[in-house]
Fold each of these.
Amino acid sequence: MNRLELRNVSKKYARSGSTAVQGVTFTLAEGEILALVGRSGGGKTTTLRLIAGLEAPDTGVITIDGRLVAGEGVFVPPERRNVGMVFQEHALFPHLTVYENVAFGLHKQQKSIREEIVMESLRLVGLQTLAMRYPHALSGGERQRVALARALAPRPALLLFDEPFSSLDADMRVQMRQQVRDILKSLKATVVFVTHDQEEALFMGDRLAVFQDGEIAQIGAPEEIFHAPQRRFVAEFMGGSDFLAGKTVLEGIQTALGLLPQPTGLPPATLVEIALRADDVAFTLDSQGNGVIAERFFRGAFYLYRLKLDSGEFVHALQPHTELLPVGARVHMYFNAGHPLSVFHNGSVVQVNSPINLHHLIPAKR
Amino acid sequence: MHLDALANLKPKGRETHRLPLLSLATLVALLAATPLVYIGLRALSADAAAWQRLLQARLWLLFRNTILLTAAVTASSSIIGVGLAWLTERSNLPAKSAFRLLLALPLAIPAYIGAIIHLNLMRPRGGVIPKLLENALGITMPAWNPLGFWGATFILTIFTYPYIYLLSAAAFRALNATIEEAARVFGRTPKQTFWFVVLPALRPGLTAGMLLVALDVMAEYGTVALLRYETFTSAIFVQLTGRYDHSAAAVLSGALVALASVILLAELRTYGKGRFTQVESQWRPARAIALGKWHAPALGFVIGVVTASLLIPVTALVVWSMQTLLEVETSASIFRPGVQGFAAHLWNSLWSAGLAAILAAVFSLPVAMASIRSPSRFTRLLLRICQVGYALPGVVIALSLLYIVNRYASFLYATPLVVVLAYVLRHLPQSVRGSEAAFAQIAPSLEEAAYTLGRNSRQTFLRVTLPLAFPGVLAGAALVFLTSLKELPATLLLRPAGFDTLAVRAWIWAGDGFYQQAAPAALALVILAGIPLSFLLRKEELIP
């Protein structure tokens, strides 16, 4: 059974009248982690708050564990939704100890059971020795784990995370997300996880939902999102892509980088854009070439070159660190992908005639 | 499954919980606005002859006197307050933490008590100092006059500068050293940095503080009455008690409130701005500036202010209290048992001010919560209406309550509860501001966390919101307690016969010329006022 279902959920802000989320639809299976990712203001946090019951949708339906919680004239307040939430700044109660914070959601349990659950939750996050401390006496990572224990303790049907690691230092963040993912997977928790960091989303999510202007631009496995973006925005947001203008011809697409022999099915002379990552482009020194080296970045094992085409467009390409090419040198660049590239027309992907076979890309479920 | 969900039918989420809150907040605002509206109506409906009479004879003089005093006291206490704050926060003055406390403590001394002491020390015939000089040196004092404009300005300045001092000291401390360092790096001298960077940074807080001081001076009755400098408040008081001319009193009150409202409106424009200038994590204090050759004059200035505003008044009160207690007869008459005894006065002061503080705190809760949790034009308006008490001097509140209680709530007439009501109406702004600041500091996500952990609105309020806001709400209540203890004119006008507080007793004895007999009550009042004051100073981390 689906743990969570959103059907066509929309919400406008009362104050500004601007649309926060529009027609959001997805389901979440038991034990699955869904990462909502997108720019700030993209609607992902509003979606999370709608699920929690901290906001009411204008239209659409939300069900948790098959029970209607919002829509069709129904609104179940957050305290009766059986969801747990980890907030951005943790939102630990500063006047309560770690123990009392974790016990806060267990007010309906008997005292002896409550004690057992609190200690078990603290053991799970490795904080049983700090139970009597107050939040201000904890480090950022410890606060983070208390927030997790507090959300887990009432055994909610659904766990919600609102950018939980954004207040941590970079190295702590990487460490925490590993720990948190292990805990969530060991508990088979069903999770909705909001982040603006695409790397974090790729790491945390079994599936990703990319938000753009209040709508879900694409939802799918991390590999699918990364390798087969359905919209230009997704390719752009998930990082590392240059966009090269092109014009369709019979044999494929004509670009400043030469002909891309990839049929599009579009009428000839249609303007399109091709998403290029650094490993899709190769180049050689060539005084008769089609561009120059604009900048060179040292990346340890290799150099990343920023190349300027004679058309004025920029692309990136990699070269091994053994060879050092001077900035300003004239080069010849060419397509070197070995797989079909993503082509966009008016911001949406153009389905190629031979569909990309992704199955070899997607490993067995983690 | 749908039936279960239908049981929770609620269309708009948490919005529904806000209706009772908004209604309560509206009721409080209506209560707060009542005296203002009433005085306005009475002043406008006074017969034309009353206006005519006052316009011809007195009104302009009163305007002139009131504005002159207000401007003089505001200016001098600002200069002294900012100067002292700079010295104790930024210079290398010794014993800074001791001076910080000593400079704030005069807040516990009501200005009219200061005026009583001043008069007993300085009055040309019979004053302690002229007598001493005459006995010791055989010279008669030159006929210098402790009364009038200069006397009132002096007394009000030395007892109101602490407001400005505390505000600017806090602002100096919050100022990040990097701002000044940046100015220096960009080529400004220390002097230029002070005038063009530091002072402008202080300005918002300082302006608000000055306007509040101005409102306080305008409302002051005891000092100007005792030192015979006629302002609106003393004129209204005379109309009310001496001539029983309520119509003239209403006209004068209307004019005074109009004047005060202009200042309050200016203050409200600055209110709420720059309140979230939090100390950043990289904050560090600016380096202390060496005073050099100014060291001795600066130290003399600080010690002089402490002496005039704290040491002399307290010493005088202690000495006179001892003298009074040692006289068996006087002592027996002061400490007699029963409702005219000292214990009764103490108790009256305590319970009336305490009840006012509790009521003001309770009334402030819905207004503060509504303005923070459902901010809108309407709740902002409610918040502002609740500030009108600042523009309603004690005499004006008393006048309007005399009318209103007589006509609509006669069961309250001639009970001490009217006095308490006056305190609440006059000092509600203080508790509203305290509570509002307290609620504003609570992140909404804390309440949301409580909801997602299965707690309903009531449990969340009792277990999360209220405990977290409590220190701030308490600070507001402590301020109401402090100012209610010190309140004089409304208490004098509204108290039922026999209901004497410490303030009233000290005033009546002094008014009858028994300055020394007034000392024990005055001293008790100052000590009592020191309790909420020390709590407030500790909360502001001025004393450890």
Note: The two ends of chain B are 59 Å apart (CA to CA).
Amino acid sequence: MTTAVIDNTNDNPRARSPLVLGDTSLTRVTDLVCSVYERPATRGWYIAFGISASLTLLLFAMIGYLFARGIGVWGLNHPVGWAFDITNFVFWVGIGHAGTLISAILFLFRQKWRTSINRSAEAMTIFAVACAGIFPLIHIGRPWLAYWLFPYPNQMAMWPGFRSPLLWDVFAVSTYATVSLLFWYMGMVPDLATMRDRATTRPRQIAYGLLSLGWRGSNRHWLRFEKAYLLLAALATPLVLSVHSVVSFDFAVSVLPGWHTTIFPPYFVAGAIFSGFAMVLTLLIPVRQIFGLKDLITPKHLDNMTRIILATSLMVGYSYAIEFFIAWYSGNSFELFAFLNRSLGPYWWAYWIMVTCNVIVPQVFWFKFFRSNTTAIFITSLLVNVGMWFERFVIIVTSLHRDYLPSSWGMFKPTAVDLLTMLGSFGLFFTLFLLFIRFLPFVAMAEVKSVMPHVLHEAGPTALGDYWGDAPRDHRAPDKGAH
Amino acid sequence: MADHSAPAAAAVPEVPVFWGYAAEFDSVTGVLHAAKECRDAGFTRWDVLTPFPVHGLNDAMGLRNTRLPWFVFGMGAIGFLTGNLMQWWMNAVDYRLIVSGKPFWSLPANIPVAFELTILFSALSAFFGMWVLNGLPRHYHPTLTSRRLKHATTDRFYVVVEAADPRFDRAKTREFLQSLGASHVEELED
Amino acid sequence: MKHAYDLSRDNVQFGDLGRRWGTIALAVGVLGTAAAAGLGFAAGDGGKRFFWAWLVAFAYFLAMGLGALVWVMIQHMTRSGWSVLLRRIAEGIAGALPMLALLFVPLLFGLGELYHWAHADAVAHDPLLAKKAAYLNVPFFVARWAIYFAVWCGTAWALSRASRAQDASGDPALTLRMQRVSYAMIVPFAVTLTFAAFDLLMSLDPHWFSSIFGVYYFAGAIWLFFAVMPVLVWRLQANGRLTGAITPDLYQEMGKLLFAFGVFWAYIAFSQFMLIWYANLPEETGWYLKRWNGGWPLVGLLLILGHFFAPFLLIMSRAAKRNLRILIPVALWAMLMQWLDFYYIAMPEYEPGSGRVPLSLLDLAAFLGVGGLFFWMVSRNLASAPLVPVDDPRLHESLVFEEGV
């Protein structure tokens, strides 16, 4: 379907690169996107789905085993009371942040290229938050009493303690899940209507018909739709900052060296976006290849995402450095020990995996060669995922395993159940994503259409029509006489 | 004679009623122009169907901005108050418990939850407010019955004028729409 | 197309107006400096109060310059088109950083009055300061500031020079060069800004530390710049400059940035406060404790309401951001609040623990002195080139810029 992909990452300041390549008719966008689910599933999809679904079953088996036997089946023990459970929780919540960044923050910054990737990134957010939500629930020991976390009138005449950051988490993550879901679904409705109108089988007509809520493309509806979209974007932006900040509060309000430092909130947010973008690339690079979406998710899109990875990598590196400096500058020997122990103590390897994957490796994106090499991007994205998982592991485990008194020191070793539960959560994530590819609009068709070169052009100079995808134009000419 | 045995509703044969016209356009420029003309012609019960939000169409149609943001702002303020009052009542009044040496009513510690509730209330009101104001979900609509208008969600643009419009005239309106450069004028039935 | 733009009919030259503004600024600066020096001398405290007033004023205008500089860099790095019309103004402000290097010199004579760590005997009797002496010592402090100013002034100069060269040649390669300069300098910029904030303000209480402090200073700096920008544009337009170029859409855009970064400042300020308040560790809480008695809680409350809530509520709506009768007063108020923020950071360390808010005429004199001299150089910068980058390849995007939804 797609032949040679031209390089639209050019840096010509006189013209903007087109965001859709090849034949840019409106019909083709719909055809391209709908072909993803209209074609019968390939064997590759079934194999991938089979593996992920098996891992999901493994996850549930591990959870069942945990419930039957208790938390002791995990490797955590005094003094390391949090380990894989909270590492996985923070890792998955962080992954979700890129979806919101793409759908909300890039929308507010008018980054038109987001339209090709926002839908899949939002879906990724929902699935990542679903994976994240499992871990705090199962780590509380008596998960059947999890509803006690919510403030509801009860015969014990007790209320939850709102001065605990763990309760803030309950509110932050559940609000985040709700708002992300609303945002995702609302944006999807016009595309679901497209799918309804293309559906050939009765079950699809009914399913997409119901889901699309009778959307008919009325401009009177678009007006309020766009306003609501803007409002949700404006609300999701502080929300996404707050969620990982609240997650960081779980650690930072404590008095534990290595956890309590004031840079944690913005540092966690930057790290979350960093890891999330890596996951977006991990997912999209194969998908654009397999489903022939290279004309929609173009080299330009990959180039932009690698730049964001580089930027957030630098922010994360900045935080590591400042944290270390302040540990020394504080003059507090416990602080300094915590950081020296991190980098040189028994978990030195975890620390250096983190630094290598998060700070050193992404520096390759300073070079165009790596930004335009799909294989290099894919490998880097995998390494960043690894690095960011280790970042949380390092923060949690290395800060806990050396208590104030050497007599209370300990080590953490994961058990098979720890490892398989983590593996299973990846299974759940990929299962949900594979189902999403098969059944829901993978690319926001309506939004892509609104940034097509000729559409921007037709809407007149106010929409920057001259700039998008046109031959470079000399802008000096009209104003030449002015000065 | 035939009336007394069957219920009235079943007896009336379903006669399609003429509902309005849908003029088809292939380009953004075409539909923008047509929308301006329809606005200036003074139609009131009309609409434009597009596969994506077209920049400038709101002005071309002369639509007023929505009041949705004020509703959302109000609900956000209620969410903020709810969050603060809830935490104050639960932790400072009804169930007083010393937690990490903090005062019973600790505003700094209450900010996160108050903030999340502000966002939650606002987002829910933006989402549901938009659907309510748009009158959706509504799964039946005359424009959804035409096979041709299925293109409205893919690649074509339609100016829809309802027969109920006071300025509507079956012959003249069709002529008018064609004069705007419509590639086709579809009759819609209810 | 909603609005007509025409740079040929529009006055994009600062010209005589610039010279007039420059003269006024110079007069204010010289008189302010003289008044500050006189009042400082009259105070009879060995110049202590003068140095503190000068410090706050210096921190304030440094923030303005750095906010402008980083904004220019971000515009280049993101290949921004909408902001081209406003870039020259930011370049003019950032280009006045060398003046601040000059105005920094008086502080060097007051290090002993400002910084506890600058006293050898204090360090000798304080094991904590002895530990930090490798960083907190006078020679290294001076060397660091030399590096900071080299990075800032060099970056501002390189960007401004390329931008002006483009006025003549229209060469798009210059856009790429500015982009490369920005990429190359963003990391040194972040590092220098952070340590400058640590040095200038955090080390006023040398026992205290907060790893977010660099971000906190950055948040205030860029917010201050977003407040100054619409005010300057408004004054220029009132004097017949840029009238056909800068539309309500661009004001709305500036208002959005002011709005958003007010929220960002609140987020950073709250993060720092909440974590320290909650953990309640003596070595950190002490800093807030000094701001917890006497007149300081009122100042803190004023910051919460005036720095965050008031601008947040006043310019939230689209109509307010487009209405200069709302936007400009809010921006002016924001400029005042940012000054108060720096005052709140610095001055409780003047007489630690006394709780007194030592407001004095000296603060006003130093503010006018530093600000007048700073704006003298800003005016000179702006007057020496057109007020917009007239041959920027993306100028057209900025001229036709229109808000979406």
Note: The helical segments of chain B are 8-11, 28-41, 57-61, 68-94, 107-134, 170-179.
